[in-house]
Design goal:
This protein is mostly helical and 389 residues long. The chain is built from 17 helices and no strands. The protein has a single domain, classed as Growth Hormone, Chain: A.
Length: 389
């Protein structure tokens, strides 16, 4: 990062949010399914609960994005959302029934899913012309994920996964406290007349990008909801499962350290295509060779592409395609249609496929979805109309 941009960017305050946010995710994603299984939820119920968490991203980020773009109070919205997400999650300390958990997850995730897309827009605004340095800040989210997932594995092995809700609650409080340190910075408004949201969404490249991201995240559904349970059923310990999750995110950190160089050199389109192809191969390897630890290790290293390269490339394109006052809604659409709708569909189908024809087939399904995303991107994202910084 250049000296001028470094002096303007509150690096550690922005990085701190990503650290706590993804440390929370590091506690939630690998172990929430195991926690629900521990309190006697069935695979179908686990799929439904996890799908609700993803499903609220379909609506919530767009509502919060519209409010942020029109009010200009993006950071205040992030702070309020983080506070109410923490309060809502605390309700899980009192009851554990299926419908209570579902209700709490709906309320919690409505606020939880508001924060990240708006913080992505806030980070991009702080970076100004140096948006390709985004990955240097975002990598601290990956560090937080690793610290959380690797540190909690031996704890759960010794004391049990029933402590998970309290740990997640403490991490959520850390997110909220960190948001209080971040100040508002308005987005840069272009000097030319900007297209409306409808005009932007009518562009073929925008439609293709959103469809690609939807399919790519749907392919991750089996991984986010059932990977830990899948490995546990094949005899892997909680500690090793946590280490495998941490390995994947460690590989992601390496990518984030390099993306500020790769994006200007290779371009977002080619990086996106490479990531999608690697993603399809990764899910096939997990489906076919789950009992081979060397293959699993290799597959987890592919997380560098299936999340790291994929996400950084998509964020870069979204920021360029939704300029100025459209930034909040652009990031919200990306979040809602990919991580929200895509993730919910992928997780829901995974629970159904697991029960109907077997666990390994959910990863075959993931490979097919990733391959479909590759084909959409290859055919329709031919050339990006905006110069790539």
């Amino acid at each position: 990062m250049s000296e001028s941009s470094a002096t303007k960017t509150p690096y550690f305050r922005l990085s701190g949010f990503y650290f706590f946010y993804f440390a929370t995710l590091g506690a939630f994603l690998p172990y929430w399914g195991l926690y629900l299984k521990d309190i006697a939820f069935t695979p179908l119920q686990i799929g439904e609960v996890m799908a609700v968490v993803m499903g609220t991203k379909i609506i919530a980020p767009n509502l919060w994005g519209w409010l942020a773009d029109h009010s200009g109070k993006r950071v205040l919205i992030i702070q309020v959302a983080a506070m109410f997400a923490t309060l809502a999650f605390s309700a899980l300390l009192f009851f554990q029934g299926y419908w209570w958990v579902m209700l709490v997850m709906v309320i919690f995730s409505f606020f939880w899913n508001a924060a990240l897309p708006q913080f992505e827009a806030t980070t991009m605004n702080h970076l100004g012309e140096g948006t390709h340095h985004y990955s240097k800040i975002r990598l601290w989210g990956s560090v937080g994920f690793i610290v959380s997932v690797a540190g909690l594995a031996p704890l759960f092995d010794r004391f049990g996964v029933q402590w998970l809700p309290i740990i997640v609650l403490l991490l959520l409080a850390g997110i909220w406290l960190n948001t209080l340190l971040v100040k508002e910075r308005p987005g840069q408004v272009a000097h030319v007349e900007q297209a409306s949201l409808i005009e932007t969404l009518s562009q073929p490249v925008v439609i293709a990008l959103l469809v690609t991201c939807f399919l790519a995240q749907a392919s991750h559904g089996p991984y986010y909801a059932f990977f830990s349970i899948y490995l546990q059923d094949h005899g892997y310990s909680t500690s090793l499962i946590g280490q495998l999750w941490a390995l994947g995110v460690a590989a992601e950190v390496g990518v984030f350290l390099l993306m500020h160089r790769w994006l200007p050199h290779y371009g977002a389109r080619y990086l996106l295509l490479a990531a999608l192809l690697i993603t399809a191969v990764r899910w096939f390897l997990i489906a076919a060779w789950v009992d081979s630890l060397p293959v699993l290790l290799f597959a987890q290293l592919m997380h560098a592409a299936s999340f790291g390269i994929l996400h950084a490339s998509a964020i870069h394109l979204i920021h360029q395609l939704f300029p100025g006052r459209l930034q909040g809604r652009g990031q919200a659409l990306y979040s809602s249609l990919s991580f929200g709708l895509g993730g919910a569909v992928g997780i829901y189908l995974s629970g159904r496929v697991w029960v109907a024809i077997g666990p390994e087939w959910i990863y075959v399904m993931g490979a097919v979805l990733a391959a479909a995303a590759f084909m959409v991107a290859w055919v329709y994202i031919r050339q990006h109309p905006v110069h790539e910084a």
